[in-house]
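Reopening: Aspartate--ammonia ligase still failing for me.
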Amino acid sequence: MEHLIIPEGYKSALGIKETEIGIKLVKDFFERELAKQLNLTRVSAPLFVKPETGLNDNLNGVERPVSFGIKEQNDAEVEIVHSLAKWKRMALKRYGFVHGEGLYTDMNAIRRDEDTDNIHSIFVDQWDWEKIILKEERNEETLKDIVRKVYAALKNTEKYIAHEYNFIEEFLPEEITFVTSQELEDAYPDCTPKEREHKIAKLKGAVFIMQIGGVLASGERHDGRAPDYDDWKLNGDIIVYYPVLDISLELSSMGIRVDEETLRKQLEISRCPERAELPFQKSLLNHELPYTIGGGIGQSRICMFFLRKAHIGEVQSSVWPEEIVDFAETHGLHLL
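Support: Ran it again with your exact input. Result attached.
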């Protein structure tokens, strides 16, 4: 049970049926707030893509996608998406979006190599969003402005849910703090990246850790990032402190996307320059795609956070080890 945290005295204030109602309240309200803050339009999105398109997110480069063959297409292989980071950029062009407009979609994924615990599941559900910007807007000021708008949607959702449920207290700070991954390493040189995240999140309440993917002064990376969507100097994660579990909780990963120069550079650093020949990457290098900023926001994560749940399985239906299910049930955690 090393991967299962049972907070002392924990008991959900909501039963299973009431939890399902609460999930709907959280998702409906936050989705509207996000769309309003960022001027986004909801669109439909694929559950699977062909691997040869280069559209699937390869995450840290080691995770295995779930794939299957399509009978009517001579068993042509397709992959369940890991995320829609690249697909969204192509969709913005195809659907005719213009500068200042964006899209969002419900993204469902299977990450078969995920190590599950209180906040991780092999099933991933998030709002994937993407917005068109100008090349001259590819800077830290633009990034911070968008982060503050996403954070405003989170704050407004907490206020709404606290009004709906009297057991919810607001504890998100008024402002989000910005810090780079290198500044964190300098502040906590003897800690692991996750330990640094916990310390800064507990200290500040809500932080945006910037510049994730590149090598730090220590020679290590704060965390992995695929080389062909985020610009590693203009990205980051929204992380909040979660008192229920006494942990730092990542709610969103986002960033300004690579331009032509950055894509080539990051592919070289990652030792996969051959990816430049894939259709998505080639379109980008040929100046055929808009410049964008985008990200993903965990649906189950924010439901867990706003409903003050101790396990992500209390707000999503997934598959867990049998011993975890039994142990959780005996301690008042009802996994869906």
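DSSP finds nine helices and eleven strands in the chain. If you still see a failure, please send the error message rather than a screenshot.
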